[in-house]
Amino acid sequence: MGFFSNIFGAAQKDNKVKVLGKLAFLEVDMHNHLLPAIDDGSQSLQQSLHLVRGLHDLGFKKFICTPHIMEGVHPNTKESISTSFGVLRDGIKNADLKVDILPAAEHMIDEGLSKLIAKDNLCLMPGGYVLIEMSYLAESKALFKVIYDLQILGYKPILAHPERYNYYHFTFDKYKQIKDAGCLLQLNLLSISRYYGTEVKVAALTMLKSGMYDFVGTDTHHEKHLAALQEVVAKYPVREMLATCPIKNAVLAQEMTDSGLSNFAIG
After folding, report:
1. What pLDDT is attached to residue 8?
2. Which UniProt keywords apply (predicted)?
């Protein structure tokens, strides 16, 4: 047993060395569910710290935390997000982790988002970026109106994980229409593998080859996601695959630095 334990232990250590710092070129993970006990992501501070450590090992030093705001399911507000953010911020400080975090949100396109837009009460990323998402079951008929309304307010909408909306896989031109409307697109890193299925992978690789993505996020919710990310980073030449797109993660990282907002609650 000792012999085999040594072999498997060495393999795990070798795999960790393979992925160590490989995603540092992205600088910031701008889509994740690391804030504790606030949505379907991390359920405790301990879990959040474990995920932060794992993502930091992959190379991330900055995180924009984006819990769901979804009417009737995850009815978060600036206040609830700020409270959970404070718990994680203090936990990171006490654990002496050398990372910067900032709160924002992933806004579901629903009636609740319409109300937030009307009140100009959104959870923004630095630089005026707003992360939005749709249901996986059906296209939101309000998508283009939301894009327009956000732009009227002076904000820059980012559509989360477009490759995961299966109803677009056979109407690929819709992605171009969304881009032409001025909406930026964010890739889930796990989508370049078969983690979400072959069709999602094909859509992601097609958009990569077409240079359509603007941002990359992990969308990490839990340990299973972290383990899958480690496998993806070990297996795929991520940096080379993203080279076809004008990835702007570094712009967000610089916005965090310039704004001086890192580790501070929502205003």
Report:
1. 40
2. Hydrolase
